[in-house]
Design a protein that fits this description.
heterodimer, A: Serine Threonine Protein Phosphatase 5, Tetratricopeptide repeat, 9 helices, 0% strand, globular, B: 334 residues, alpha/beta, Rossmann fold, 2 domains, 6-stranded mixed beta sheet
Chain lengths: 248, 334
């Protein structure tokens, strides 16, 4: 895939994510009202609609486009979710400067995960977006580097892994973010941040399927998938913990 | 609950507009909720900036002026400002020597400042340093924070860092001082009533007519203990003892203190608290070098106060005595 096609795929993936956030707005807010402050759906939707609008004037370069989405999320999602979803995307976009390849997509995904963990000071098992991102990123890397899968197949496995990660957030106690203040009462509720992360990855995969079907595996050009992977990562929900409010 | 507002959504914008009109030495960065010195950036000096949610006035923009802050980013009520606006502020306050950020320890604030610092470094190659203030001795983990919260002790950090910058110190020196103040200051607060946010229009938490909450933060988040209402002297003892226990001061130490109003308590009562505070410090063999009483770090209309104690040395005394002129705090020449 050439850079132009990569850029087109990033734009399409962002549009698909924006549509999905709009569609799931109420559901995400319902999840958040149980253990957070009931604004995750509205904040994510606002952020992705703004990102879509900002892409209209952005240069057709994969790293620039992903960074533009990140800056839009930082500005519009607000609270702690802005830096967690958007700031991490901004930082990880640097890995795509040479374009999207299987290799750069792995670097992008790992950088995204690292930034979320560092900024949110969260680890696996804290009942946050990290519980969805970590299995997705690890599975993606293993599929590419160890099992020699093509990026599309790897991304599909990453989505499945994220889904299991989301399910894992339900029966555990929150240790980070606003949900952690509920203590044991947080058990039994699905994490909204992990959930929105999964939705973003699913949309990335759907767009990747259209662009990569059949010819991806052939070479490092598998780039497209990586991009998409990157994007979901971007979308990766912040932990609920990352209180969208994050007040002072 | 009655409020002197138009719409909850426009409160912050309208407050800032009114503020820069009252203080022509301040100006707003267009299209943002950032206020800076009218003459920013000041060439040849490290810029000192702060920011956080609104509702704590005169914090944060009220401490902009010669000898203190160069800029302050305002978020919505009790909500962190966004990283893009903080980054704009940092760039607007860089006079070539870099910018130092004073951040209070709340998850949203810390994450947005850290992201903003990366943005400023990436976009404008600005040198940026920061300190995370965590002076509240009441809690280790609060509703909004991992670790201690940043509250009224932040005023001392603004003051000392601002004086250092005005004297021409570099980023590293300013960071050293900010960390030094943060390591020697403790605060504890109490609420007699809950605050009422413009958005909600009713009390954030329920407190009985004969109850008070001890160990509160500045956003209406719960405290560590709820008790029956006590006399001013007893409340003062409770707050001050908690702070002194945390600071572990030696007899003979010199301190600066703040009896800070939370927004809804009359100055008369704050002075009553200060009277007892100074008696108690004397009983502990401590010498108060400077005592401030007033509304410095508020929580909207909450009734209550906090007590802050800072352990001094010669360097800190010099910095606190250094002239400053801001809407919220002035130290005269000489």
């Amino acid at each position: 895939m050439g850079r132009e096609a990569q850029s087109e795929a990033i734009r399409e993936a962002t549009a698909a994510m924006a549509d999905r956030m709009a569609a799931e707005k109420s559901f995400l807010t319902d999840l958040d009202s149980a253990i957070g402050d009931a604004d995750h759906g509205a904040n994510m939707n606002r952020g992705f609609q703004a990102a879509l609008a900002r892409l209209e004037d952005a240069d057709d370069d994969p790293a620039t486009l992903v960074k533009t989405v990140g800056v839009a999320l930082v500005s519009e999602v607000g609270g702690a979710a802005g830096p967690l979803y958007g700031g991490s995307l901004m930082k990880a976009s640097g890995e795509l400067e040479e374009g999207v390849t299987a290799e750069s997509s792995v670097a992008f995904a790992e950088r995204y995960l690292e930034t979320v963990e560092e900024r949110g000071k969260a680890s696996v098992g804290d009942k946050t977006m990290v519980d969805a991102i970590t299995p997705a990123v690890h599975t993606y890397r293993k599929a590419i580097e160890v099992d020699d899968h093509d990026p599309l197949e790897a991304l599909g496995k990453a989505v499945d892994a994220a889904e299991r990660g989301v399910a894992f957030t339900t029966p555990i106690r929150a240790k980070k973010g606003r949900a952690s203040y509920l203590g044991w009462r947080s058990v039994g509720h699905q994490d909204p941040g992990a959930t929105s992360t999964l939705y973003l990855l699913e949309e990335l995969f759907a767009v990747a399927e259209e662009h990569l079907d059949g010819d991806v595996e052939i070479d490092a050009e598998a780039d497209v998938d990586p991009e998409e992977l990157g994007e979901p990562a971007v979308g990766g929900d912040v932990d609920e913990s990352a209180n969208s409010d994050g007040g002072s | 609950m009655k409020k002197l507002i138009n719409e909850p959504d426009t409160v912050v914008d309208e407050m800032l507009e009114g503020m820069v009109t009252a203080h022509p030495e301040l100006r707003r960065l267009e299209g943002t909720e950032v206020v800076v010195r009218a003459d920013a950036p000041v060439e040849g000096k490290v810029g000192i900036v702060s920011g956080g949610g609104s509702g704590h006035e005169p914090t944060h923009a009220g401490y902009i002026g010669d000898g203190m802050l160069d800029g302050a980013a305002a978020g919505e009520v009790f909500t962190s400002p966004t990283a893009d606006q903080i980054s704009e502020m940092i760039q607007a306050c860089d006079g070539g020597e870099g910018v130092f950020c004073v951040v209070k320890n709340y998850e949203g604030d810390v994450m947005n400042f850290e992201t903003a610092i990366e943005m400023a470094e990436m976009e404008a190659d600005t040198d940026v340093g920061y300190v995370v203030v965590d002076d509240d001795v009441a809690v280790e983990d609060s509703l909004y924070t991992s670790g201690r919260r940043g509250v009224a002790g932040t005023i001392f950090v603004h003051k000392a860092a601002g004086a250092m910058a005005h004297r021409g110190a570099d980023l590293a020196e300013i960071e050293r001082i900010a960390e030094k103040v943060n390591g020697r200051v403790g605060t504890m607060g109490t609420a007699l009533t809950s605050c009422v946010t413009p958005e909600k229009g009713e009390p954030t938490f329920d407190l009985g007519a004969d109850e008070i909450e001890l160990g509160i933060g500045i956003h209406g988040e719960p405290g560590t203990e709820r008790t029956e209402v006590m006399s001013a002297d007893k409340i003062t003892d409770h707050l001050a003892e908690a702070v002194l226990e945390d600071l572990e001061l030696e007899s003979g130490a010199e301190v600066a203190t703040i009896v800070n109003g939370m927004g809804g308590t009359p100055l008369m009562e704050l002075y009553v608290v200060n009277r007892r505070l100074q008696e108690l410090l004397e009983d502990h063999g401590l010498e108060t070098w400077n005592a401030r009483v007033g509304d410095y770090m508020t929580s909207l209309d909450m009734m209550g106060c906090s007590i802050t104690v800072l352990e001094l040395d010669d360097e800190l005394k010099e910095l606190l005595a250094y002239p400053a002129e801001t809407p919220g705090l002035t130290v005269a020449e000489g």
